[in-house]
Design a protein that fits this description.
Layout: H1 2-32, E1 36-42, E2 53-59, E3 65-71, E4 74-84, E5 87-92, E6 105-111, E7 114-120, E8 129-135
Antiparallel strand pairs: 1-2, 1-8, 2-3, 3-4, 4-5, 5-6, 6-7, 7-8
């Protein structure tokens, strides 16, 4: 009987370590993924004159692109430009018929269950905006 215990104890310890590593990796991967639909408000710094806008962002499963929408006349596709410092930088392009200006960059980063969106304006730093987006159940 002691032979079985000596064989099972190391096996049980290895199994516990493996399960712990898998659970920890799964939590890290899940919390960092941007895949899905996100909605919230972005605004400029107080006194900047940049208006507050409701934005909806959808990121595809491979996190290489998606789409964005501020209004019926201001929307289009997103294309992944780069990844740095934990941020995915997506270039906003305009859909056919859109009447707003495109070219802004949405820099998205998971923060807990939410996504922080730091928008770099194509018009310059004084027009930058940011906000926190929440996952939309679809």
């Amino acid at each position: 009987m002691s032979v079985w215990i000596r064989r099972l104890v190391p096996l049980a310890i290895a199994a516990i370590v493996a399960v712990s590593a898998i659970v920890a990796f799964g939590r890290t991967s899940h919390s960092g993924r941007l895949t899905g639909t996100w909605s919230g408000y972005i605004a400029g710094k107080p006194g900047s004159g940049v208006k507050r806008h409701h934005i909806r962002i959808v990121v595809n499963a491979s996190q290489t692109g998606g789409r964005w929408r501020i209004s019926a006349t201001c929307h289009g596709p997103l294309t992944l430009d780069s990844i740095s410092n934990g941020y995915h930088h997506y270039l906003r392009k305009l859909a056919r018929g859109a009447t707003c200006a495109g070219g802004d960059i949405d820099c998205l980063k998971r923060v807990g269950a939410d996504v922080y969106d730091a928008v770099t304006s194509h018009r310059g730093g004084e027009y930058d905006s940011s906000g926190t987006l929440r996952r939309v159940a679809t």
